[in-house]
Amino acid sequence: MRFGITTPNIDGFADPTLLVGLAQDAEDSGWDGFFLWDHMIYRPPWRPIIDPWVALGAIAAATSTIRLGTMVTPLPRRRPWKVAREVATLDRLSGGRVILGVGLGAPKDEFERFGEESDPQVRAAKLDESLTIIDGLWTGEPFSFEGSHLRVCEVRFLPTPVQKPRVPIWVAGRWPRPAPFRRAARWDGVFPINADGSDMTPEQVRDAARFTMSLRTGDQPLDVIVQGKTSGRDNESGRMAEYARAGATWWLESTTWDRGSLDDSAERIRLGPPPSGTA
Questions:
Q1: What is the mean pLDDT of the chain?
Q2: Residue 23 belongs to what H/E stretch?
Q3: Residue-wise over 119-144: b if at least 16 C-beta within 10 A, else e?
Q4: Torsion of the alpha carbons at 242, 243, 248 and 254, rounded to the nearest 10
Q5: Which is it for strands 67-74 and 151-155: parallel, antiparallel or unpaired?
Q6: Domain regions of the chain by residue span
Q7: CA distance 66 to 78
Q8: Positive or negative, the Cα torsion across 190, 114, 132, 37?
Q9: CATH number of 2-271
Q10: Phi/psi of residue 107, each to 5°?
């Protein structure tokens, strides 16, 4: 199992220089990935927020081995061709280290306050169309698309990403709602989140992974991502082993985004990942 850090782009973390330093600390401390939230706003009271893509460009230039990306980008409020270009550029800048996490997006404020469609069914359709477009553009071959919400007249996007056949795409979804996991089965990773907001148990992770795997048509491996918190001081190898046996391939360590806990989050990153318990 691999281990990553997921950090907000909000409030105390709304400082690109700080995020670059945290990513360097994560790389030096043995973490495998560093992922940023992708929020435009986050409910009143309004808080400082930075653009994750600009920050990731700086992180890519300041690191050399750690994987990086967003967890998650709400594609229904983005132009997929712009995202395709951003991710391909970031993949080249980082030497092929990018992972693209995607989802429907939340909260609804991020859509409604800017006149974007907030209906979940429409957002789901736009998410699927956007993924098809991004995947097609990344081939570097002539590509066209006609959907219910999006259209691409024949274009070629060059240069392509470094990674082949594409930058890995991880799809987030609230378990046990089936639709996001049907979507994830078509891509490279599944990120199950409990519908009630609680941490996923190993049993829930196993069920979500099995359901998603049962819908896959190819034999390519599927990443299974779990998010949670560890202390960095206690021996939690047994807990990690339970998630690994349930099918998890990545553990993402959550950081807390209020200013008061920023120092704690930085210290947790420097303590390094928990033992996997799989040796």
A1: 95
A2: helix 16-28
A3: eeeebebbbbbbbbbbbbbbeeeebe
A4: -150
A5: unpaired
A6: 2-271
A7: 26
A8: negative
A9: 3.20.20.30
A10: -80, 175
Q: What is the tens place of the pLDDT at every residue in 85-95?
A: 999 999 999 99
How long is the chain?
279
Sequence-distant (6+) residues with CB within 8 A of 139 are 160
Q: What share of the chain is helix, strand, coil (3-state, %, to 5)?
A: 40, 20, 40
Q: What pTM does this model have?
A: 0.96
80: preceding bond cis by omega (within 30 degrees): no
Helices marked H in 178-261 — which ranges?
179-184, 202-214, 237-245
The partner residues of 7 in beta bridges, in order of sequence, read 36
* 26: confidence class by pLDDT, cuts 50, 70, 90: very high
Tokens at residue 246, please?
């349930």
Residue 219 buriedness (CB in 10 A; 0-12 / 13-18 / 19+): exposed
Do 3 and 223 meet the contact criterion of CB atoms below 8 Å apart? no
